[in-house]
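The authors assume throughout that readers already know how a fold can be written as discrete tokens. What matters is that the chain and its backbone geometry are given together, residue for residue. A single example would do more here than another paragraph of explanation. For illustration, here is how one protein appears when written out as sequence plus structure tokens.
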Amino acid sequence: MISGTTNDDGGSGRNSRLSYTPTTTGTYYIAAGGYGRNTGSYSFSISKTGLLDDYSANTNTTGSLSIGSSTTGNIEIAGDLDWFAVSLTADTIYQINLEGSPTSAGTLSDPYLRGIYNSSGVLISGTTNDDGGNGRNSKLSYTPTSTGTYYIATGGYQNEKGSYKLSIANQTPASVPNSGFNIEFTLQGDAQYQTYLDQSKSFWENVITENLPTVMDSAHGIIDDILIEVSIKFIDGAGPILGGACPTDYRNNGSGLPYKAIINLDEYEIERLRTSGKLLDVINHEVAHCLGFGRWTRYNLSNGEYQYYGSNALNEYKNLANNQIISYVSLYKILLLHLCMSIYLYLS
């Protein structure tokens, strides 16, 4: 007997009624009887009430989507809607694609984006789309005015049924930094991660603005200002190793700053971080190591006793702490922060 499939008095009066959804296709047997010592005749019927809906059309949906990714679903019956929760950032341009058979992404011949809903489940005006993509696919560009959780509703035109693919991407143009500093990446791995490298390049070129002397490298030619070789591959899968980053070649002039570096990342961990929305933070962190962050003693910025005393950063620290007599910054705090961040990323 399948657990939970008995019923007494679930219908009208003392009749019995049961709703059941099998998990596998096959032959089943239904047992009928009377309560206690009751005897007599009875009528028995079974009917199909509908297919199990994969995602609900409300804020309790189990469907979710992360930026730069896609998911699939099914419109099981005419009029069915599937909602997907997604976290959006204010003033960011997003492109949403709902695809079906026109691009061989599903069997739904006429996908219909039924709109974007706010965190309260209220439809946002002007966010529906039909046939805005290739063929009869739907495509929508949307820029939220506030940061938070939104819900994307998918469906079919009129009585259409079938499977589909829903995707969302950040289409905000990268800001062009007013900077003389240039970072060049090479990527060995899945091309979907290139956009994260581009965003990190923009971030750091807005932080560091000073141009450095070019270097003639025997393998790559002229490098201005740093070349970072990124490799995303299998390291240990679900194991504890995320990856690592470090400079490999330094300038011979007085600065001794790096001009080549490597970042090695585990493909399993990177995909996990991408789906959780933490990948860009990790890449920015690893690029910092490539730029020399953490190698304080090499540049005479630390005395080897975990005391940092670089003049420019120390002046900023004095101002932030409102204490002008501070003579160094304790690197113990930075190391502890680094450890905490590593643990957080591994456990999240």
Q: What stands out?
A: Residues 183-347 form one domain.
